[in-house]
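Team,

Forwarding the record for the chain on the shared tracking sheet. I've put the sequence and predicted structure together so nobody has to dig through attachments.
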Amino acid sequence: MKNLVLLGGGYGNMRILLRLLPNNLPQDVQITLIDRAPYHSLKTEFYALAAGTTPETHMRVAFPEHERLSIVYGEVTEIDRQQKMVLLEDGKKIAYDDLVVGLGCEDNYHNVPGAAENSLSIQTMAKSRKAYDAISALPSGATIGVVGAGLSGIELASELRESRSDLKIKLFDRGPRILKDFPERLSKYVQKWFDKNNVEVIANSNIKKVEKTALFNHEDQINVDLVVWTAGIRPVSVVRNMAGVELKQGRVAVNQYMQLPIDSSVYIVGDCAASQFGPSAQLAEEQGEQIVVTLKRIWANETLPEKMPDIKLKGFMGALGKKQGFVYLADTTVTGRIARLMKSGLLWMYKNQNG
């Protein structure tokens, strides 16, 4: 029996499981899912866990159950493509016929001195828990520096304001304005929310060094009590260190079928995979869809299409606390309470579909 091994229970591999189970898995194929946790984590909501506004239990979705799905819990330490084997920290070895690598990402500190040692992360549930503990321990009037004003940084800063009105929050944005690649109306709305809620946005920032209680922006020293880093990601080291992989702008290069160009039995999905788009849950799901199409054709001994359909993303949604938000969908911008309800509704649908 062929063994399809899925590394990581993130958004891409959850979409693959949703499409193959319960009735679309060939009788001669079994699936082995390997993850460090016994549940799928809603990573897009980790900012709320760190801020203390949403409990961890609300960010868990159970993995599906099926007679030909085995779940192995552990930390992946090596992917041996020559032996077609995955090695785990506890010494286990899992053989595969086809492998989908969706192990996610870690923070990219861009070689900034002190950033890794002196900042907190929200890239995993465990790290978000640690961030929550540190933020909760801050005294009234303390200052938090959030480095990186992408979606994660924006949502974290706004949720922190809702959680701790007594804190000073500084959000460091490398660009000239919030969400500079999107319509100015959207930027102005988010900036206005931050102005109204006393979140200081520092535009055109360039963090040169991070100390325990200070950030160095250009040549200026800014005193802070705690730093959270949301300024970019890269694939985890196990993926970066795979023999023979080519990195493209920091992520693993793949062909149109999401396969390694040098190994058609290995697929890359999610934050690990190179793409014209920035990493997101939506992108990972679309990549998962394409992997399922490819696998089903290969299993049926059918010829792969000469060209896979282009991935088209619908847009994105962001929260500004629990009452306001913003949506960019099909070149249309929606802001305010309706946008926040749209995001909450999408999250409910996702949990209902996958749970």
